[in-house]
Design brief:
The chain has 305 residues and is an alpha+beta fold. It contains six helices and 16 strands. The strands form three sheets. Strands 10, 11, 12, 13, 14, 15 and 16 form a seven-stranded mixed β-sheet that branches. Strands 1, 2, 3, 4, 5 and 6 form a six-stranded mixed β-sheet that branches. A three-stranded antiparallel β-sheet has the order 7-8-9, with no helix packed on it.
Length: 305
Amino acid sequence: MTVQTAAFDRAGQLRDEPGIIQTLRASSDALVIVVREGRVRIENGGLLTVSPSEVADDAQWGLLGHRSDDRVLLLAAVGPERDAIDAAPAETWLGLRDTGGMLDAENTELLVTAVSLASWLRDARFCQKCGSETELRQGGWSRRCEACAHEIFPRTDPAVIVAVESPDGERLLLGANANWRGRMYSCFAGFVEAGESLETTVHREIEEEAGVHLDEVRYISSQPWPYPRSLMVGFRATASDEHSARPDGEEIIDVRWFTRDEIRSAMNGDGPVGLPGPASIARALIENWCDQREAGAPSETREGK
């Protein structure tokens, strides 16, 4: 498995410097990525940045880090109200699903980080224990309640997403979520519950959603997914009995086994069904299976039933 490194420097050493956000906001060298309702400005294939002086005063601020050209990047999370920044054409405000594969690795990681942190900055302004307003710390990466001293940090919710193959490795099981009304088929996914391991969640989710028991689970890769703050942990699994597959009838309304030829046709837009977009780990897992005929692909962690 390829080891992925960070595409930009998060500059963790700067976060504890007193007044770092105020200092950088006053700097002529700092750039700002503005996030509004989970979207950012995109221009010329990259994230549009502005100067701190162009951002509304009521924004919530965070330190993102250093860009590859060493410029310091700040985050400004703004509300839905329209101001000078918000007056840009609507089509230039895009989210991760909209950008697809148009952004390079650095801009994609910046987009995901900015959207995730912005959501937390605007949603966690009050203490979960006593309800008092909190104070931003660590360059926007923590909050502290001055009333009860409770500390709050951005949370990440782990979820598994699984590509299930047939025992002979020649077909892939995909499901149609009720929200998609049968227009798209994808891998099976679900959040990790309290007290569960990732592997336990994989077995539970596949049995609940598709009625399938698994003989083998193999870790493939992961992807941060800012809707609102998930970490999608991707697996490939082998079904013990392909004939037991059935939808749960609530969240999943249909399940189907697909051959590689059918998957390739769908990836080309020729049917028989729609597939997830190129920005998602679901699409990457499907492509990974389609491109690797052998069952023991570059997996990396194996776990028995």
